[in-house]
């Protein structure tokens, strides 16, 4: 619980801890952690397991990397040779990519400090008011204006140049050989939460294009889920419950330099659900600082459904024309910047007010409506979408029904197949639902009260089961019991070779007990009675098919007597 709690905000709920799942979009917590069994399970996306499973999923790491990370974190010595060959290969490749990035980071740092090569870069950073301690902390460097500076270093160190291409550090020439990807640029190393360099961002020193150049997608770098500065900010974000999101590297560093530590930057891309999903594990609220131009306002609108669907409260800030966070905080100081942040509008209100403040006319209202309707259609929460429709109707002076009618044009109509699935889903009540409930009640009893296994196995409880997944778990429990082995939930999870069965068992383990300790005996008696009656009914049907009247009379008497108990 202590480990997962560093990445997911957890609250006590009975025997478990609950929080918002970091692996899928949700507003109501379905992610549970059982501290006693040291397991987690999400009732939404069904991901679950132990701390190793969590670390691998959250950090996109292999099992060997995870084992090493956790061993280092908790000062545990591990032996080598524990992984399968494919896992070893995958881990070795990732380790090599991290190693190449580290070599490149050192090369860029040295180039920045070089008396001749780094002179123009140092002058640029000085003009941007970056202090030496900030440059050192974030390992800012410089890629000299050379075609093969890094290539030469890597070749001298006998590095794998093909792997360096895969890392996005160098590019293959069609005519043969390689050249540096980053040239004559300030270099911003991008770190993961384990302080490893996963990629780089490079900014030109003049007005040439492209202004920023990032590492392409690699096995260890994914722009759509990586946030610059999060490795240095996540603890403060959690303490303050708020994250400030800016667009550029320099914006992030300038705010940090002035003392705002709960800040991160996107890598020149739009915010994605994976960005927000990672942040909501630390923050209750996000404040996004957009540019004052049309592109910035459009970005604010596009980000609305991203935050809404991930369940993270978001506000928007636009700085005065001609300013970005870097220039604004350097000119006006942090206190003035924080005043603007504290007065930020909720994302939805921000966009509407921005549009209507420019030109509050009928045409402007219609324009705002047309712009925002497609975005509203992307919001999955029906209640939230309805609230936005009402507020939009009130603000632009249009009847709510009219807005809903326009919105319907953008909403996807359910296909015939989807409609059929919905109807079929509604018809699962009755016998099928009752059978499913019986399966889960019986499994709950066997798992949480292992002392009932012998009696339920002896009376043939398996005849009540209809779900093949539950049958597999129950068969495994009975097989272990017959071998006189301890039937612990942890051992069951290790033995089960079916992921659906493991998911089902985790759900049972993370749900409250069906009955209290005092009610266990009554629950077993009721199952024995149900099994007895099921057997009598089956025998009655067979006797009826044979026309055996004598047996029918006997069975009728047995049906009223109930099972014999000692």
Q: How does this structure look, described?
A:
- Helix content is 53%, strand content 12%.
- About 3% of the residues have low confidence.
- Helix 16 packs across helix 17.
- The protein has 566 residues and is an alpha+beta fold.
- It is globular and about 105 Å long.
- The strands form 4 sheets. It has a 5-stranded antiparallel β-sheet, sandwiched between helices. A 5-stranded mixed β-sheet has the order 13-12-14-15-16, sandwiched between helices.
Write out key terms for the chains shown:
566 residues, alpha+beta, 5-stranded antiparallel sheet, 5-stranded mixed sheet, 25 helices, globular
N- to C-terminal distance: 45 Å
Order of strands across the widest beta sheet?
1-2-3-4-5
Mean pLDDT: 83
The strand count comes to 16
* Helix content estimate: 40-55%
- Specify the number of helices: 25
Biggest sheet architecture: 5 strands, antiparallel
What global shape is seen? globular
Overall SS class: alpha+beta
Low-confidence stretches: 413-430
Q: Beta fraction of the residues?
A: 5-15%
Rg, rounded, reads: 31 Å
Concise overview:
The protein is α+β, with helices and mostly antiparallel strands and 566 residues long.
Protein topology:
Blueprint: E1 11-13, E2 16-19, E3 31-34, E4 39-42, E5 48-49, H1 51-59, H2 63-73, H3 85-113, H4 119-127, H5 132-137, E6 141-143, H6 149-156, H7 161-166, E7 170-172, E8 178-180, E9 185-191, E10 197-204, E11 212-214, H8 230-240, E12 242-246, H9 249-257, E13 263-265, H10 273-279, E14 285-290, H11 294-310, E15 313-318, H12 325-332, H13 334-342, E16 345-346, H14 347-358, H15 362-376, H16 382-396, H17 400-408, H18 416-426, H19 431-448, H20 453-458, H21 468-482, H22 489-495, H23 499-510, H24 520-546, H25 549-561
Parallel strand pairs: 12-13, 12-14, 14-15
Antiparallel strand pairs: 1-2, 2-3, 3-4, 4-5, 6-9, 7-8, 9-10, 10-11, 15-16
